[in-house]
Structures are given as C-alpha cells and as structure tokens.
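Q: What would this chain look like folded?
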Amino acid sequence: MRPLWPGKKEGALLLGNAPSRDSREVVSTACYAKLLRAGGIGVALAVLLWWLLQPISAYHLQIVRADSGKVLWSENVQTGEAFLVRYVHSVELSPVLEYFMVGDDGEIVATESRTRSFGAGLPHVKKGVTELAGGYYVMRELYEPVGELHVQPSHLHSHTLQYHGMTVQLNRPPYAREHLIVRAQQPPRWQALLGGG
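A: My prediction, written as structure tokens:
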C-alpha cells in the first residue's frame, strides 16, 4: 500500500498540519459567535412576526362580505361610538332607522330604533323607552348586544350606513344584493400598517 503522504508511513498523522488547541478554540469561538448572531436574528425575526400578528388596540368598523370575509369598507372606531343604519323596509316600504354602538368588547350593540309602521320584520314589542316623535315610533335606551350585524341590502331601495359624517351607500355596488356583515374588529398590526384594516 502506498503511504498517504510522501515520506510518511501509512496512517501517520501530520501533526504539523493538525489544528492546534488554540486554533481549534478560535474556530469554535468563531462558530459560536456565528451561531449566536444567527440565533439572535432568528429570535428578532420571531419577535417581529409575533408583533405583526398581534391585534392593534383600536377597533375598525368594517363591512365585509359574509361568503369570503373580504373587507369592503373600514374606518377606525372607538368603543362607545355610534353609527346609523337607514333603509326602506322591503315589505312595508317605510323608512327604518337603527342606531348601534360599539361595545367595550367590540360587540355591536343596538341602542335605538325608529320606524314609521309595523309589520313583518319590524319592531312590535315595547322595549326600552318608547315614544312617538316626528312621525316615528321610537324605542330608545336599548342595550341589545347583537355581536355582528348581518344585512342584505337590495338595489331597489335606499340602504345606508352612516358614521362620522360619512355615508356608505349599501344599495350600490359592491354592497348591493350581497350578504354583508357589519362588525368591529381589531385587525392584526400588519394589516393596519398596510392600510387594509
């Protein structure tokens, strides 16, 4: 058998080429430092990802499609703030005004209802403080948690959501004839940063 290195016996170790203890320590220290840097970067990325996935503290009042969850409209909302859903009742053809607010836990809460007539799908039980005012049967001081508000606006009659001076025409595309959910959500931080909250 031929020796591995000229002039050396088979199996002999070239001690001159073997790493010294000091050089092994330098190599292991460098590897350890690289591992620490890589681990630190990994931890930092994990923390960043966790932070981006956390919900922001502010709520967003949203209109979403029930079938896909696609957000069609979104605005910042504070707990306790109110919004109005106004529509023409499809059977009675009379105006209905329903007032809601965002509860402390983000739940939608019915606070007031105003109708001009009675019939299918309209209030018929006395709740809260009731009165006749301005041609409307008014029920005030309600506090009925509804969670999310489900609506399916027709394209034939006016149907709006009013909030902070804004009016969303629910009887027009992309809202009309769709099963919609009005909800208060705390979107994840990444979505809010991208403006999609």
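The chain is about 20% helix and 35% strand.
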